[in-house]
Each structure stands twice: as C-alpha cells, then as structure tokens.
Amino acid sequence: MDEIKTPETRKPQRRQRTKWNYKRVGVALAAALFLTVTAAYGGYSLAHRLGGHSDVKEKAAKRPVVVTSSTSKVFGTTTTTEPNYLTYTVKSGDTFYSIAAKHNTTVQKIKDINNFSGDDNSLQIGMLLKIPTKVPVEPEATQKKDGQQSKENKASPIKVSAQEISRGPRDAKKVALTFDAGSTSEPTRQIIKALEDANVKATFFLTGKWVEENEDLAKKIADDGNPIGNHTYSHADLTKTSNNGIAYELSKTEGIIQKTTGVSTKPLFRTPYGARDSRVLRVAMNAGYRSIYWTIDSLDWKPTMTAEQVKNRVLSGLDNGAIILMHCGSSQTATILPELLKQIKERGYEIVTVPQLFE
Questions:
Q1: Could you report the per-residue pLDDT of 224-263, keeping only the tens digit for each?
Q2: What pLDDT sits at residue 26?
Q3: Residues 110 and 163 occupy one common structural domain
Q4: Is there a single domain that holds both residue 226 and residue 77?
Q5: Is the pLDDT reported for residue 204 higher than 50?
Q6: Looking at the predicted structure, is the pLDDT value of residue 132 above 60?
C-alpha cells in the first residue's frame, strides 16, 4: 500500500529569493521624487496666480533676539533699531536703578522689555539692554513737549562728574543764590516775587515730594526761567541710603519735576543736609548728576537766626564765584531778600544762576 504524504510529512520547499534590480528601483525612486517636487511647485505657482499679486510685502520680524542661558538669567540684545527703543551698554558700577534714572524710565519697564528676571548681580559689563523711550529717540535739544521745545538745562557748562562744586571761578565778580525746598512752602511766593522785582534769577533745589505738594509754585519757578536742581524725593540722608535707594530718589524726583514743569534737573543736584561722601557722589554721577555744594551757608534754617543776622552773614562772606545757600521755607529770608539783593548789587556783584557762574 502506497504511503500517503500529508502536508505535515511533505518535504518543505525552498523559498525563492527575490532578486532586486537595483537600477530599476533607483530610476523609480528618482521619478517619484521628480513628480513630487513638480507637483508641489506647480501647486504653489497656481495658488500664486490665482491669488493675484499682493501689495503687502513680507517684513522681517523686528522682535529682539533673546538669549536664554541654562540658568534663570535672561539677557536681551537687539538686532534691529526700533523707533521707541534705544540700546544701552552696561558699564562698571551700573545698577538697574541708575540705568533707569539715566533714561527717565523705570526698572520694571527695562526688565519687561528685556525679559529679564535677574537682579543687579546679574548685570554684566558690556551687556546690551534695550531701553524703552516714550518718543522716538532723537537729540535732547530737539525733543518737544505739547508742541513746544522742552525746557531743559541744555548745553550746561556744568559737566557730569563725581567731583563736587562748592564755588564758581574767581575771575568774575559773580555770585549765585540757591534755594533749597524740602519742608514748608509758605514763604516761597514772597521769595519768588523779590527775585522778579529785582530781575534776578536763582537756582532752586527741589524735592520730589515738595513739588507734588506745590505744583503751582514749581511751575512758577520754572516759568520764570530759574534752573531747578534735584534735591531727592524724600529729603533723605544719602550717606545712610543704599546705592539703589539713592538712584531711586533721584530718578523719582526727576520724573516728577519733568512731568510738572517740563524741565530736567540734570545735571544739578544737591544732597539734603549737605550729607555726602565719595560713594554718594559716584552714584549721583552715574545717574547723570553733579553735586552742587555751597560757599556761604546763610543759616536761615535756624529758628534762632533773625532776618538781619541772615543778611549780614551772607554779605560778610561775599566773594567772586560764591554760591549762597538759602531756603524756600525760611521766613527770615523772605523778609530780608529784597534788601539783600539790593546790597549785593551795590557791592558790584552780578547775581546769576549756578550754571551762569561757569559761562
């Protein structure tokens, strides 16, 4: 009987290996690639023809390039110049507050525009920061406010420096009256009137808080052509204030006075109480200021001084280039000022502003 071979017992057949024709495969792939590219280009061209020629030109993105490190520091740099921003290179001794003060802006605005989350320790010399400006950047002398040229201490003969000024040159018979304002304002109108009647200009050092409380007087002082200097915001002892605190006091006051009068205080600055040291003067310099001290202290701030004593103290110290310290809140000064101005002139002195001493 013949043995019947079942599928299980059949001898397995060898699979035939498919022999690839690599030349044919290569040609096929090349053809497929060609057809794909042609179809894509044809679709783009067709869409371009159907859509018509657009009048809107594509523009390169003007966003700043932000370089992010592996830490939380984020440093911003700009690759384009935009009309409402300028680029600032960080220098030795800079802080966020000092940079903000230099450009009349705020620390938060600088950090926001640069996507910056760090503190002053994160600033590096040579770093580029984008600084926001309220108007397109242009030379200060051409900037305008409400259609009129901004009243500023333009081309001041006093240059920004950490070297303090306590008197002017001795080669001309000139003296400068200065008035500090930080407390009461009651006698100020009488003082302003005495200056007007004598056709004399003086230099006023105002605190930001005083200006907030006496906007009309601050405007009157500026409108009469009297230079205004920065006397800090809160009349703080700057020798006991941090660098950031000093910069903030100066920046805040500059902003208030600019907004109220249209006048910049820079570069004129006077420390409250005359309290200063090399650190204070250096921080002020970095903020765009130079300290103006005095040659003669009238002591009109002392309640024990009479008006006659104030006058005699000033007259006895008169000298070429003298800078005289008086106060807007002094009733003695308000009382004696008309007579004092008259006697100074009678002695042959020209009464000028602090900047005019150096012209």
A1: 999 999 999 999 999 999 999 999 999 999 999 999 999 9
A2: 66
A3: no
A4: no
A5: yes
A6: yes
Cα 87 from chain centre: 12
- Residue pair 221/192 in contact by the 8 Å Cβ criterion: yes
Helices (H), 198-324: 208-213, 215-223, 243-261, 278-286, 307-316
Please check whether residues 187 and 307 belong to one and the same domain. Answer: yes
* Whole-number percent of the chain with pLDDT over 90: 55
Q: Which residues pair with 179 in a beta bridge?
A: 204, 326
In this prediction, residue 74 carries a pLDDT of: 34
In a domain, residue 103? The reply is yes
Q: What is the largest CA-CA distance in the chain?
A: 157
Task: Please tell me the total count of domains within the chain.
Answer: 2
Residues 345 and 264 both lie in one domain: yes
Phi/psi at 312 (5° precision): -65, -35
Please indicate, yes or no, if residue 88 is contained in any of the structural domains. yes
Query: What residues act catalytically?
Result: 180, 327
Q: Which residues contact residue 174 at a Cβ distance below 8 angstroms, ignoring those fewer than 6 apart?
A: 168, 320, 321, 349, 350, 351, 352, 356, 357
What pLDDT is recorded for position 86?
A: 78
In whole angstroms, give the CA distance from residue 296 to residue 167: 9
* Domain that includes residue 291, residue range: 156-357
Same domain, 117 and 161: no
Instruction: Confirm whether 90 is domain-assigned.
Output: yes
Regarding whether 186 and 77 lie in a shared domain, the answer is no
Distance CA 86, CA 75 (A): 15
Residue 174: what pLDDT?
98
Distance separating the N- and C-terminal Cα atoms of the chain:
137
Q: Does any domain span residue 34?
A: no
> Residue 325 has what pLDDT?
98
